[in-house]
Write a structure and sequence with these properties.
single chain, mainly beta, 2 helices
Length: about 260
C-alpha cells in the first residue's frame, strides 16, 4: 500500500504549501471571479464489494467491517454564469476496503493448501479481505438548491493503483471442479487460503450522487454515494461465478478556498 500513502502525503504537502503562500489568495480570488470554486476534501468510505442481489451460494453474512477506507480529494467546480448549475471535475485517492465472514454453499473457489492449488465448489466458511486503492476522477453536474447546499449527480472513473482480494476458507469442504466431484474436508483449525488480487479489474466506472452543506465560510460537510457499474473482476475470471460491485458511501469534510 506504499503508493497510496505517498499520494496522500503529497496531497497534504501541497495543501500545506498552498496555504502558507500569501500569493495564493489573489490566485484563488481570480479563479473565483472566473466562475471556479476550488475545494479540498478528506473523508471515509463505508460500504462493500458485493454481488447484487446476494446469490443463492451465499447463505449467511456472519460479520462485516468496512475497515479504514480514507479518501483525499481536490474538486474544481465551474459555475455557469447567472445560474444555479455547475460542472464539477475532481481527482481523488479512493480507498475501498472491507472484511467479511460468510457461510456459503457451492461457492466457486480456488484455494492453496500446503502450497498446492485446488479448484472447485466450496461449502463452509469464507473470510474475505478487500483492500482496493484507486485514483478516481469524478465528473458531476451540480445544482445549488440553497446558498449553502448543493446536490450533485454524475459518473466516476477509477484506476486501480493497488488491489487485494484475498482470505481463507474454513470449517467445510471443497468438491473438485463441480458439486459432485471428489471431496476434501477442512475441519477444526484447518484452513486453506485464496488470493484473487492479480485478477482484479484495473479500471472501474459507475454512478455517483451526493450533497454538501456549507457549515462555515470555508468549511463544508458532504456525503457521496458511489455505485460501480462494472464488476471488480473481468468477464474472463470464472472462479467466482457472479459479478461483484463496489458500493460505498463517502462521508467527510471539505475546505473551500
Amino acid at each position: 500500500m506504499k503508493r497510496q500513502y505517498i499520494l496522500l502525503f503529497l496531497v497534504a504537502l501541497i495543501t500545506a504549501s498552498v496555504t502558507a503562500q500569501e500569493s495564493r489568495t489573489q490566485k484563488i480570488i481570480n479563479a473565483a471571479l472566473r466562475g471556479w470554486d476550488i475545494e479540498l476534501r478528506c473523508g471515509y468510505n463505508i460500504g462493500g464489494t458485493s454481488p447484487l442481489p446476494l446469490p443463492a451460494e451465499i447463505r449467511e453474512i456472519k460479520s462485516f467491517s468496512p475497515s479504514t477506507g480514507f479518501t483525499a480529494e481536490a474538486n474544481f467546480t465551474k459555475r455557469i454564469t447567472d445560474s444555479k448549475f455547475g460542472i464539477l471535475f475532481g481527482v481523488k485517492v479512493d480507498n475501498k476496503y472491507m472484511d467479511t465472514d460468510a457461510r456459503v454453499k457451492n461457492y466457486g473457489m480456488e484455494i492453496i493448501d500446503n502450497g498446492a492449488k485446488a479448484e472447485g465448489k466450496w461449502t463452509g466458511g469464507v473470510k474475505t479481505k478487500v483492500r482496493n486503492s484507486y485514483l478516481t476522477v469524478p465528473i458531476q453536474g451540480v445544482y445549488r438548491v440553497h446558498p449553502r447546499t448543493n446536490l450533485k449527480l454524475g459518473m466516476f472513473f477509477s484506476y486501480l493503483m493497488e488491489g487485494e482480494f484475498s482470505g481463507y476458507v474454513y470449517d467445510g469442504y471443497l468438491r473438485n471442479i463441480d458439486p459432485t466431484g471428489e471431496k476434501a474436508t477442512f475441519s477444526g483449525d484447518a484452513i486453506a487460503t485464496y488470493d484473487f488480487s492479480e485478477d482484479l479489474n484495473k479500471f472501474q466506472y459507475g454512478l455517483q450522487i451526493g450533497a454538501d452543506w456549507k457549515a462555515f465560510k470555508h468549511l463544508k460537510v458532504y456525503g457521496d454515494l458511489s455505485w460501480g457499474l462494472n464488476s471488480v473482476f473481468p468477464s474472463s475470471f470464472k472462479t467466482i461465478t457472479f459479478k461483484m460491485y463496489p458500493i460505498y458511501f463517502n462521508l467527510g469534510v471539505g475546505y473551500i478556498f
